[in-house]
Amino acid sequence: MTTKALIAATPWSADKAKAGMVDFATAGRGTLGGRSVRVIAEQLLRGGPRRQAIRVEVDGPADFAAADVHLRTDGGSSVPVEGVDGPAGSLRLLVPAVDAPTTLRLAIPALDADATIGLTVEPVREWTIHLVHHSHLDIGYTDPQGTVLAEHVAFLDSCLDLVRQTADRPDDAKFRWAVESLWSFEQWVAARSPERVAEFVEYVRAGQIELTALPYNLHTDTCSTDELHELLRLARTVRDTYGVEFTSAMQTDVPGTVAGLPDALAQIGVRYLSVAHNWAGRSVPHLNGGQHLPRLFRWRSPAGNSVLVWMTDSPHGLAYMEGSVLGFDTSYEEVDGMLPAYLTALATKPYPFPPGMFGWHGDAVHDREPYPWDVLHLRVQGMFGDNAPPRLIMADTVARWNETWLYPRLRLSRNEDFFRDAEERLAGQIREFEGDWGDWWVEASGAVPARSP
Fold first, then answer.
1. Smallest Cα–Cα separation from 269: which of 244, 297, 295, 303?
2. Same-domain check for residues 279 and 365
3. Closest Cα partner for 317 from 365, 360, 362?
4. What would the 3-class secondary structure string for 73-95 be?
5. Residue 219 in 3-state DSSP?
6. Tell me, what CATH number does 113's domain have?
7. Per-residue pLDDT tens for 245-265?
């Protein structure tokens, strides 16, 4: 029998989280003819001439078309609208792009001859979204250790196949992969022929596959200084053996690291660190000033070394799965419905998701600036979970998306590609921080009973 103590008080729902995100993007709502109407501001821009998208959702049957929707400015001028394909159950309209916040009035005379709904349309940013496709290596979490190892070895075989399969596509839609944990590459090399390894390394040099510097996701607070630097032994070996340089490191799930990590990374030339922390149930960073740490910042150690950091920062447990929440492992149609709302929420709210995401404990956060820039790092995985495989669907989605929209622009990228782009665009705007980035989970290490002799 299930006891009450084992029943979650606030069970997490993906649908609830997505609905809350879309609600964050709502630009206006009201009632027309007794039916609820919601207007969603979408960060979507189409060219020739420039037009941006809004999405109209009406409770009840979809018994109206674009021609039934009337838009006017506050001054009474008519605004031209064009209906285009959009998410099921809604009507997507293109309107002339604005360069400043603009108030409009929406009417659907077929529903209500007199009433209107007010909405504010914001300018669309010229987004570039770098999709970093990887798999979170979590040994023994989803399957026994041997099974997980075999999967990650097979993943790298699949990467070779997918790189070849997309070789003739536009550059943004070519398959790319970031090896999150270098240990999996070491295991793959031991099981593959020199010719196959040479092909893989050639794709690394060509920028199709990225080897990152850390061997796995470790609680670095447990390391001595020597042990911290020894974490990079494998990266040095790979560099010296194959002649590839390391520019990036990744840390996933583990929520923090010690202040000396930039020093260790600097020893092999790593300049960039991508982190996606799991806050689930272990901390409330927004109660400790964490809401003032931006997604992109420079982290300087006491010794003066630094790395440029991207942090997927929402205080929930799914930071490295946000791409899956938005549907990148599901379908183009799911992305079409979720990504525009996500960008609007990211640009206008402290966090793109409301409380209710898995692992979010506490109230909503209000004293945080929305994301200010138009270049974005977004992790994508082959399924909603750890140890996810590489998949072609991301490249297919990028190709179709970029044929449809002028902005946002999607690109399958390495971590290095994102960071170089961000450095070029945002020179002089990136803030610098110093200090320790404590890992709350590591406190459990001191609670583990000592093993008997």
1. 244
2. yes
3. 360
4. ECCCCEECCEEECCCCCCEEEEE
5. coil
6. 2.60.40
7. 999 999 998 888 889 999 999
